[in-house]
Write a structure and sequence with these properties.
Layout: E1 2-3, H1 26-35, E2 44-51, H2 68-71, E3 76-78, E4 85-87, H3 91-95, E5 100-107, H4 116-120, H5 136-144, E6 154-156, H6 161-164, H7 194-203, E7 209-210, H8 219-237, H9 244-261, H10 263-267, H11 275-280, H12 302-312, E8 316-322, H13 330-354, E9 361-366, E10 370-371, E11 383-384, E12 388-394, E13 401-403, E14 405-406, E15 413-415, E16 418-419, H14 420-430, E17 439-441, E18 447-449
Parallel strand pairs: 1-7, 2-8, 2-9, 5-13, 5-16, 6-8
Antiparallel strand pairs: 3-4, 5-12, 9-12, 10-11, 14-15, 17-18
Helix pairs in contact: 8-9, 12-13
Length: 461
């Protein structure tokens, strides 16, 4: 586990060379928010990734009139939104359907088995020669974060494939804008696939953040050490033209602020949550077979952590639920997993609503692709990049609508295609950012638009 304290060591400088490029300061961003009518400076995104690729047929786009080998086992149920029917596995979301925008026509999947496209809107190969595109949370850290903040702008809670493949990465922004990644293994178990274990072993354990003081170290001693290091750094500052010193200073100062404030550690501590609220995020125990890499009902509390983090001031939180990679036994696996996700999302949305926070927190629920219309001989659904499902809620989005449609088999878009880039352009808009006009500089000094292709989904505003 990577301690938060080594960020203060001088030998970390070379690892932090890149990452402080850009044309917008925090003051610029706040002025833009004010000009656009956005009054809050604590608007946030909760990005929920359904790891493995959720089946559209068995979630928000059932096809009851299709042949049996396509429609599957689950029946559609009515929702609070007249005319909309979704899977019987989602009764709680059905009951608050008027709060969601149901996107049935998500297109443009790269077909890659990680969450990078759901984190950035881009394919991994874009700008790979200069480090690749940054995840949205890293961009928000660049535009809206400050080294003096008591909490990070971006906290990554993802597990499984997205964790192993470092999907929430800073790309060309460099390591000083990487997400804070607390160790989730003791809170939520997620058994890795054999292939993922091998991949992780080759890469080494991913960096996680230790939020406790090292033995014998107090806040006062830590501040003294920081001042001492700053004094040493002043000697070298005139000789450093690479920006590495500035990156180190920012990373180290923020590390100290986060550690000494305790706000992040408190947000990640369930003991700080009243038991009545904690119970909202505890679905009934699910019976029946559990696939090796699937999570149990305890994982619903990941969204409680997400709520606590945005309440503490975090701008972006990424979460995963696993495992939707249903090449076999799709129906028993979905019967075990989807009710947990249904309960968790309902708990999050209603909890934020009761706290008066829903208008300031944009929620997106999606995966790396959809699943095939035809059920395989093993009772599974295969990868299907042609089209996938997504849910949007909160953040000022207009709920109570369905955007896009698929053909009678649910395999191709019939109307209103929506791209990953379009979704991100819309998410940025909820924070008062025009992603098609805002740029950040890459390491070559060239300005890169946050979204160079996507357009805001006008139906949402």
């Amino acid at each position: 586990m990577l301690s938060i304290l080594p960020a203060l060591r001088p030998n970390r400088r070379r690892a932090l060379v890149a990452g402080t490029f850009g044309t917008w300061t925090l003051a610029d961003m706040l002025r833009a928010e004010a000009a656009s009518g956005v009054k809050s400076s604590v608007k946030s995104i909760i990005n929920i990734h359904l790891d493995g690729g959720p089946p559209q047929h068995d979630t928000i786009d059932p096809k009851p009139d299709a042949p049996e080998e396509i429609r599957g086992e689950f029946k559609p149920i009515a929702t609070k939104l007249p005319g909309l029917r979704i899977s019987e596995l989602m009764p709680k979301i059905a009951g608050i359907a008027d709060m969601f925008a149901f996107i049935r026509s998500l297109v443009g999947s790269a077909g890659e088995h990680d969450a990078f496209q759901c984190q950035s809107g881009f394919r991994a190969k874009e700008l790979a020669s200069i480090g690749g595109r940054p995840a949205v949370g890293c961009v928000l850290g660049k535009l809206l974060g400050s080294a003096d903040d008591p909490v990070p702008a971006f906290v990554d809670l993802m597990q499984g494939r997205p964790m192993v493949r470092n999907s929430a990465r800073p790309g060309f922004l460099g390591p000083s804008l990487a997400p804070f990644r607390p160790d989730m293994s003791k809170l939520f178990e997620r058994e890795l696939e054999p292939g993922m274990k091998d991949e992780l072993a080759k890469k080494g354990k991913p960096g996680t953040i230790q939020l406790n003081f090292a033995e014998g170290l107090t806040p006062e001693r830590l501040q003294d050490r920081t001042k001492l290091l700053a004094g040493f750094d002043d000697i070298r500052r005139d000789l450093d033209n690479s920006g590495s010193m500035d990156a180190l200073d920012k990373f180290g100062r923020q590390a100290v602020n986060i550690l000494t404030s305790g706000k992040l550690a408190d947000a990640l501590d369930f003991a700080k949550e009243p038991s009545k609220n904690l119970a909202k995020y505890c679905p009934p125990k699910i019976t029946g077979p559990k696939f090796d890499t699937a999570e149990d009902e305890h994982c619903a509390k990941k969204l409680l952590l997400a709520r606590r983090l945005v309440e503490a001031g975090v701008r972006c939180v990424s979460v995963t639920f696993s495992d939707f990679d249903t090449h076999s036994k799709n129906f028993p696996r979905m019967r075990q997993l989807m009710p947990i996700v249904d309960h968790a999302i309902h708990a999050l949305v209603t909890d934020l609503g009761e706290r008066g926070m829903l208008g300031d927190v944009a929620i997106v629920v999606w995966g790396e692709f959809g699943r095939s219309p035809k059920i395989s001989k093993d009772g599974g659904r295969e990868h299907w990049p042609e089209v996938g499902p997504a849910l949007l809620c909160g953040g000022g989005f207009k709920g109570g609508q369905v955007i896009g449609s698929t053909d009678r088999t649910g395999g191709k878009v019939a109307s209103r295609p929506v791209s990953y880039e379009d979704v991100f352009a819309s998410l940025y808009k909820t924070l008062g950012i025009d992603a098609t006009k805002t740029t950040i500089k890459d390491p070559t000094g060239r300005p890169q638009f946050l979204m160079d292709k996507g357009e805001v989904i006008q139906e949402l505003f």
